[in-house]
């Protein structure tokens, strides 16, 4: 996306010309950011067709395998354009995502009628997994609770909800790892039974078959697969697994597919999972024609998928593979390219963790485009690189970055601007600052904006219904409903102009009997329960509206949880008959969000029949806080930044995009730790370590007698090495999104869980600061 090489002139760079000379065999292309890999791969496909390497009269095709549906459309358009420019018919090529390719293979195998194949998307698979988790917990409550901290043994609904989320996430990692190794639940259980009574090995070889963790996750995996089977469905890993199995055991199928697709070109190979590599290797055969294009230095999914850049790097280094590079990029100014190269080479040569030096990056500098290129680099006279350190994140960094981005957009209305946050939570903080400035921006954060506001408001009201004597819940209900009113049209009782939030919250806190607000005694008025001389008539009116709405809501408590939620949503969001078209559309979106929340609550209730409103409210808090995303339809595929309008997204989601100016926030030692002893943001630390790492390590040790971890490292240490590597690559991706201006910031302190916390600097930021001192142009 956003590759702006002019494919009308076809003035190829030397590296591209070398790739165009390909005629067959295995080829690996390592492409730096902005080097035009989509253009080059499209040109190669058209060239193979034009040279008669595929027999179009026999319906042969060059197969292009890519990751996103939007990329499918891009490839098709570029190949078609090139073929038509050469006076050829636009035939002889087939562009597919990996999943559509696997589905085609399974269908062509003919073992299952096409109409009976049901492939579930990620959201549906996650729902089934959560049902499997809840079912296992119901049958194994005591074992499940042994993983929780034992001190006190008084578990709040919030702690239980958090542990359940961690269990589901860990189970997802375990199942993904198992399927990529093609381990069925039966095979895992058989290995557990076989090894359970075996004598203990050496101290460094524990009997993992006796681990409660492996028993829990194997049990959840069995339930998950059984639920898929009952629905006649496949998840994405099952689909690719099934396709690979058919290629292994059906030589007639392999022969027909190789005849149809004699050349296979693979995009984004750095994100390839083992099953994908297995499938494409079987499809092309030992002497087949397989071209793989990717950038190991932009592999940013290894900590939450089965992908890892080592797979593509190993392919590049194979003796039967021809290796080529696409080293030239016209995207960024030389100053910004130099910053990316400086941090890459420092990580390879000087990072204090030896495994990071070896595995974080592949040595490959970004080179500017040669003179006369159709995509010249922006001149350094137009470039800027700034590194800022703020005293406090919430009080200084986030407000300052929001203001600076808005000012940049005002000064440069013809340029594109992005703010890239390391986490969604930090992104939400920036969104609040941009909202306060009335900024013109696109919010691409998952579970952001209105979705979280609707969830927070419904959560707040339901929390009051769950515990009407909790004054904090009452205050939260007022806050949530007030914020909802301020960010979108909400009808009575929250449709008027609001009072000062802090003052009104203070008034609420002054009420020592919260039940008197909702259920006043006979002849008792709201004025009577408020401190004398403090509340105004408007305050009393506002409190009366809140109390009336909540009292009416209590009458709905006997409804099923989904009906209760929808009834509350109708009271808040149902459009009025005379509403403007834009306002009505906004209300319809709010109701759609509320419907998703209601459906999720119903599923939790069905999975845990003993749960009552307090437990369900605790679960909903994960949606309101942004830890869990709703299945709200968003159309971010093919997103193109707009000049003068700020894009807000995460570093992960920025890959494939580019902007004139990029603001990278929160680049501190918590996000990019400099050693294995440092704290790791976003990594759970229970069970003595990282649960995902422990789960996959125990699986590998059980099934193949080695844990798949770094030598002489624990599973958690190995996971932390991967975190450091991936976050360095994320920083590299963030830097290389910028064309002309790059602003990197961190803070010395932040507020976490209502506590002030000092933040260590990221070691790599010192490297970039030294680079800036040595290379910044004098102004």
TrEMBL record:
Coiled-coil boundaries: none
InterPro entries found in the cross-reference section: DExx_box_DNA_helicase_dom_sf, DNA_helicase_UvrD-like_C, DNA_helicase_UvrD/REP, P-loop_NTPase, UvrD-like_ATP-bd
Binding site for ATP: 31-38
Organism: Candidatus Promineifilum breve
Matches recorded under Gene3D superfamilies: 1.10.10.160, P-loop containing nucleotide triphosphate hydrolases, PCRA, domain 4
Reactions catalysed, as given in the entry: Couples ATP hydrolysis with the unwinding of duplex DNA by translocating in the 3'-5' direction; ATP + H2O = ADP + phosphate + H(+)
Domain UvrD-like helicase C-terminal: 354-656
Pfam families xref list: UvrD-helicase (PF00580), UvrD_C (PF13361)
GO BP: any one term: recombinational repair
UniProt record similarity statement: Belongs to the helicase family. UvrD subfamily.
Keywords, sorted A to Z: ATP-binding, DNA-binding, Helicase, Hydrolase, Isomerase, Nucleotide-binding
Name of the protein in question: DNA 3'-5' helicase
